[in-house]
Specification:
Helix content of chain A: 40-55%
Strand order of the largest sheet of chain B: 2-3-8-5-7-6
Number of domains of chain B: 2
Distance between the termini of chain A: 28 Å
Strand content of chain A: 15-25%
Helix content of chain B: 55-70%
Largest interface: A-B, 78 and 81 residues
Distance between the termini of chain B: 22 Å
Number of strands of chain A: 17
Shape of chain A: elongated
Oligomer: heterodimer
Order of helices and strands of chain B: HHHEHEEHEHHEHEEEHEHEHHHHH
Strand content of chain B: 5-15%
Chain lengths: ~450, ~425
């Protein structure tokens, strides 16, 4: 009898059931989408924060002092120690290599621009632009286009017309394949194996050069493929592929420093401790957390004779920004959960309140309040499950849409979320129905049947 | 509802009371009685309205204000505009004053001057003159063991000055110990260099510079164009960038030693990217002889993160407001549907269609307006609370949001009243009154 009652109730009151079901579906969909966005926002914003550039720098252990003012190096060029370029791909072999978005080696060299008496001193920096490297079986690309996304290049595209290269998005942690390379994307950027260079915009204005011109750098004839604008010291410099800088310096394989851009966890008490004072257990925990300090420690392990240091301007501030945004989204998600719980309760309460006559009839025919309540709860459970499943699907789609349109990447939905969401849906539906069911059951059947609500 | 006839309720008495009472139209009286008699249902409808309006207000307030809140966080990244002298000259002497007058004194502007000095063993090191108090506020990420005192201009009264500074620093408990320690160091130095004319100048020494010039943290000498200066390392500086290989001095000490005036001013301009553009334009006008450059790394990344956060918040706010509106819709439709007998009686007594519609519409509008006012107050409280919890500064109430909340609430209330009326209009009053 009981299943038949439930079945008939759904069959005969399709409109009302549909209304309640739609309310539950919408409520659950909003809740799912918000929870998914809130759990993933930390990771997404962390990636966006990488547009501030590298947060770690690796230098040779016995480095001499930098004597540099406003991007002009005043130190003898061959002075000081170097890192070995061949060691760099080992960065991909560190414990947290998935968190390393990219790295760029730098080799500043003092050069003479032009020929003869009117030759000018300038700094040439050798680096990777978008270099394809290999570590073990792992192919990846890295360079300034990933670590320094604010660098803009104006240069000629293949067909000769001038175009401004689009700003490069920081793509997936594993590097390049995720980034679509549009035809205009690489306009002006030199190839890492070529003899082409970028000229800083202020230097270019001073020399009166434009893309496509050639320039004599310390006796070498190099082609300017683009004009670089960074808003920093590079505007007065020449930026060349690393191999060109090494040739000019006469030190193959030399690298002065490496900038590493890594996704990190905000600092806490553990991260600031000195690893030398930790016991093995604590050390393991420290080593296996992506703190900026532990990633730096692993970089030092990977690259011989190196010293890794966090760039405090970037590393220290991203933790605060990240926790503020995460906190904000958490509170907003709570508001969303509250609003959708309220919507579901309101819909259920209305649906049940409309059925007082039915309750009165059942009571008049001798049904106990328990039987009536059981019927309503069974219906609510059924509605909650159907609405919950539909809402979870709709919410996942919604979250995916938000991720794609705002962050250009997927928002992953944890499968664990499904039972949690379903449980919440059932609980909220029950809670929303409970008060209405109690009132409906307590109502005098005589009044209900006479229609005097 | 079931009024039993009693002495106070005889028709004459009622009529007498009403004659004296201020005249209220039948329409208003119906509205008030409807709300009073069905207190429970009216209250639950109002509650839904209030909650929805509160949530909408809070989200809108937050959305408007979050940008300002996050901007203050982003200013911790330091300067977003730099003023640089052309061709390694010095800036005009009044450059700092002109920057401050054109951007307002609240803007943080820090002058820097650079020189290359030599240590005793002939090593080159970059020495920077700056204003320590300003640099400390601008570059909050600098990890400094102890900030040197902004010492007074070097004068014969150098020995008197420290006591004055100690007096000022005394109330700040934690600083005091560190300060005392460094003062001890400095006094020791003064005794060590007895016989010389000048006391050593306190310097902030970069981590890497320290290992080169003063591995044992003892006072050291630097030479610039034949002039030697005694320095004591008051504190160590660690940033992970080029600052680590530099030595920082107070600007006035630096200038008396080297004669080099500031060549760079780093400025943290507050506000949106348009306001910063505006600031750059003003600076260019005020200082035509120098370069004014935005720090693209800081500005672009900030815009990027800010836009993404705002877009996410916008999506969330839209979803939440929609859900809240849905909640109101469900409750109000139930409420109006519930009163189909009132509707039927009014029609049976000969009320015109216009009057009935007007009655329900007025009721819904009143409900929406009251809900919006109450909800607005609560919503502002919620937004302020979120601001305090998350940003440690309350969200400023935006009264410009109120018209939107009010209009939205009334619109939703009207829609949820009109929908069921449209359904009921097709039904004969008699059928409703019979309870079918």
């Amino acid at each position: 009898m009981f299943p038949r009652l439930v079945y008939e109730s759904f069959r005969r009151q399709t409109r009302r059931k549909l209304l309640a079901g739609v309310a539950i579906t919408l409520g659950v969909a909003v809740a799912t989408a918000m929870i998914a966005v809130a759990t993933d926002i930390g990771d997404k914003i962390n990636r966006e924060l990488r547009s501030y550039g590298a947060n770690l720098v690796v230098t040779p252990q016995e480095d001499t002092l930098d004597v540099e003012i406003g991007g002009v190096n005043l130190k003898p060029p061959s002075d000081g120690a170097f890192l070995n370029e061949a060691d760099l791909p080992k960065i991909r072999g560190t414990f947290w290599h998935h968190n390393i978005v990219g790295f760029s080696p730098m080799l500043p060299v003092t050069v003479k621009l032009g020929r003869g008496a009117d030759a000018k001193d300038a700094t040439l920096v050798g680096t990777y632009f978008n270099k394809a490297l290999r570590f073990g079986k792992d192919d990846f690309t890295t360079g300034v286009r990933i670590t320094h996304p604010w660098w803009k290049v104006e240069g000629s595209c293949g067909d000769g017309h001038l175009g401004r290269a689009a700003q490069v998005q920081v793509a997936g942690a594993t590097g390049a394949p995720a980034r679509p390379a549009g035809p205009n994307d690489s306009c002006g950027w030199p190839d890492d194996t070529s003899q082409n260079v970028l000229l800083g915009e202020r230097l270019a204005a001073k020399l009166g050069r434009k893309p496509g011109d050639s320039i004599e750098v310390s006796g070498r004839q190099l082609t300017i493929s683009g004009i670089l604008s960074t808003g920093a010291t590079e505007d007065d410099q020449v930026v060349a592929p690393l191999s060109v800088a090494q040739e000019i310096l006469g030190k193959p394989g030399a690298v002065r420093r490496v900038y590493v851009s890594a996704l990190t966890k905000p600092e806490d008490a553990l991260s600031r401790r000195d690893p030398k004072t930790m016991n093995p257990e604590l050390f393991d925990r420290w080593y296996c957390s992506p703190y900026v300090q532990s990633i730096g420690y692993q970089l030092q392990e990977a690259i011989p004779h190196s010293h890794a240091e966090q760039i405090r301007q970037v590393a220290q501030n991203e933790g605060t920004v990240l926790s503020r945004i995460k906190g904000l989204m958490l509170l907003v998600t709570l508001a969303a959960l509250f609003a959708s719980a309220l919507a579901v309760s309101a819909a259920m309460a209305t649906a049940i309140f409309e059925r007082r006559v039915e309750v009165g009839l059942m009571r008049a025919l001798g049904a106990g309040s328990f039987a009536v309540a059981a019927l309503f709860f069974a219906e609510a459970l059924l509605l909650a499950i159907i609405g919950g499943v539909a809402g979870f699907g709709a919410g996942s789609l919604l979250a995916r849409q938000i991720g794609r349109s705002i962050f250009n990447s997927q928002i992953s939905i944890e499968p664990v979320l499904f039972p949690v969401i379903l449980a919440i849906a059932v609980f909220v539906t029950f809670a929303g129905s409970a008060a209405a069911i109690r009132r409906a059951v307590k109502f005098d059947p005589v009044f209900a049947l006479r229609g005097e609500a | 509802m079931s009024a039993s006839p009693s002495t106070v309720h005889t028709p004459q008495q009622v009529a007498g009371r009403r004659a004296k009472a201020p005249h209220t139209s039948m329409f208003v009286r119906m509205l008030i009685r409807a709300a009073v008699l069905r207190r429970g249902r009216a209250a639950s409808a109002l509650l839904a309205m209030v909650v929805a309006a509160a949530v909408a207000t809070a989200m809108m307030n937050l959305y408007v204000d979050v940008q300002a809140k996050l901007r203050t966080e982003f200013r911790n990244y330091g300067a977003n505009v730099v003023v640089v002298a052309k061709e390694s000259n010095s800036l005009p002497a009044d450059a700092l004053a002109r920057v401050e007058s054109s951007l307002g004194s609240k803007t943080l502007a820090v002058p820097f001057s650079y020189a290359v000095a030599r240590t005793k063993d002939g090593q080159s090191v970059v020495v920077v003159g700056t204003d320590f108090n300003r640099a400390r506020q601008l570059n909050r990420w600098w990890n400094v063991s102890h900030w040197p005192n902004a010492s007074p201009p070097s004068s014969p009264s150098a020995k008197v000055a420290p006591t004055v500074v100690t007096g000022q620093a005394a109330p700040k408990g934690r600083q005091n110990t560190a300060h005392g320690a460094s003062r001890g160091l400095a006094t020791e130095t003064m005794q060590a260099s007895e016989g010389r004319q000048t006391a050593p100048v306190e310097a902030l020494v970069g981590m890497r510079a320290a290992t080169a010039v003063t591995p044992d943290r003892k006072p050291f000498e630097l030479t610039f164009q034949g002039r030697t200066l005694q320095l004591s390392p008051a504190g160590l500086l660690q940033t992970g960038a080029s600052e680590d290989s530099r030595i920082y001095l107070d600007q006035s000490e630096f200038q008396t030693w080297t004669g080099v005036a500031p060549s760079t001013i780093e400025i943290a301009v507050n506000g949106s990217s348009e306001e910063i553009e505006q600031g750059i334009k003003q600076l260019t006008r005020a200082l035509p002889t120098v370069d004014v450059r935005p720090v693209r790394q800081i500005m672009e990344a900030e815009a990027n993160v800010l836009n993404k956060t705002r877009a996410t918040l916008y999506a969330a706010a839209t979803l939440i407001v929609l859900t809240a509106a849905l909640c109101v819709l469900a409750t109000l439709i139930g409420w109006v549907f519930d009163r189909r007998r009132d509707f039927a009686i009014m029609k049976a007594l000969g009320a015109s269609e216009r009057l009935v519609n007007g009655f329900f519409a007025a009721e819904a509008a009143a409900l929406g307006a009251i809900g919006a006012v109450l909800g607005f107050g609560i919503g502002i409280g919620v937004a302020a609370w979120i601001g305090r919890v998350n940003f440690h500064a309350p969200v400023v109430p935006r009264f410009s949001v109120f018209p939107y909340v009010l209009a939205g609430s009334i619109a939703v209330a009207l829609i949820s009243a009109v929908l069921p009326i449209g359904l009921l209009r097709r039904v004969q009053p008699a059928l409703i009154l019979r309870g079918e």
